[in-house]
Amino acid sequence: MTMPHIFLVDNGSLRPQATFGLRCLAEALTRRTALRVEAVSLLHSHKIAADKLNGVPATIVKRRLRECLAAGHREFICLPLFLGPSLAITDYLPQVVDELSGEYPDLKVRIASVLAGEDFDIPDPRIAQMLADQIRALHPSPTTKVALVDHGTPIIEVNRVRNAVARQLASELDASAVLPCSMERREGSAYAFNDPLLEKLGSVDDFAGGGLILAMFFLLPGRHAGEGGDVAEICKGLIAEGTFEQIQNTPLLGEHPMLLEILEDRLQETMSRKI
């Protein structure tokens, strides 16, 4: 029996740290499962100069699939490193597969479920548990506020996942509420479900003042999350304007060991599913 090629797939970034993070997870998952897992991005990462990636160039799904197909391989599993059902996974990746299927009719690609699982209103509880672990490690006081921030999205289902995780996180922390918010959003009332924005937390009733723990609903460092990212800059602004006395950010979810457990489960579920 021929084993499928397994790709751990993120959206991709022009920041080398994101590619290093993806590679680290793929290597750890390979050790955990004894199955070879490759780090492959959907977009962007192939534009990073190889000398910024220890001499090993990054690759993207379309290019890597073509290479493997040319070498005679036909079966693949794409394991999304995505918290919710982003269009990158539900729309772009299937388009890539359909395009290549026109050239290789025997191509078989199974796309695993996102980390949240299939129920976007009751996502995998381990995501909230990871966030709770990271928050407890910061030793919050009883008066510390907690907000859960993501990038913001045009897709309501992705937003539903974040909001459901915020509710689960409040239960994990035995807190009255965890405030979900977005780093940014598109203009227009159609995208108001992303509100409040992180930079506008001062306008939320009874939320400003004192200390804030910002739970990061991000997986890998890049332009938005991580050191010097957009979220960090917004937090600096909130401190400067006096909205909060202190802001502590949790580590990114890609750093939590339980993530590998979820990824392994998604992989095993997919391998047991017939094409």
Characterization of the model:
The protein has 275 residues and is α/β, with parallel strands linked by helices. It has two domains: 5-117 and 256-271, Rossmann fold (3-Layer(aba) Sandwich), CATH 3.40.50; 125-254, Rossmann fold (3-Layer(aba) Sandwich). 36% of the residues lie in helices and 15% in strands. It is built from seven helices and eight strands; from the N terminus they run βαβαβαβαβαββαβα. The protein has helices spanning 16-33, 61-70, 87-103, 125-136, 156-173, 230-240, 258-271; strands at 5-10, 37-41, 75-80, 108-111, 145-150, 179-182, 211-216, 246-249. The strands form two sheets. The protein has a four-stranded parallel beta sheet, sandwiched between helices. It has a four-stranded parallel beta sheet with strand order 6-5-7-8, covered by helices on one side. Helix 6 (230-240) links the parallel strand 7 and strand 8. Helix 2 (61-70) packs parallel to helix 3 and helix 4 packs across helix 5 (156-173). The longest helix has 18 residues, at 16-33. The radius of gyration is 19 Å and the shape is elongated. The protein starts with a strand and ends with a helix.
Q: So what's the CATH class of the largest domain? A: Alpha Beta
Largest sheet: 4 strands, parallel
Reported CATH architecture of the largest domain: 3-Layer(aba) Sandwich
User: Could you list the spans in which at least 5 consecutive residues all have pLDDT below 50?
Assistant: none
Multimeric organization: single chain
Report the span from N to C terminus. Answer: 14 Å
Instruction: Provide the CATH topology of the largest domain.
Output: Rossmann fold
Radius of gyration: 19 Å
What is the strand content?
5-15%
Helix content: 25-40%
Mean pLDDT across every amino acid position: 96
User: What structural class results from the helix and strand content?
Assistant: alpha/beta
Could you tell me the number of beta strands? 8
Q: What is the element string, with H for helices and E for strands? A: EHEHEHEHEHEEHEH
Helices, by number, come to 7
Counting structural domains, the number is 2
Strand order of the largest sheet: 2-1-3-4
Dominant shape: elongated
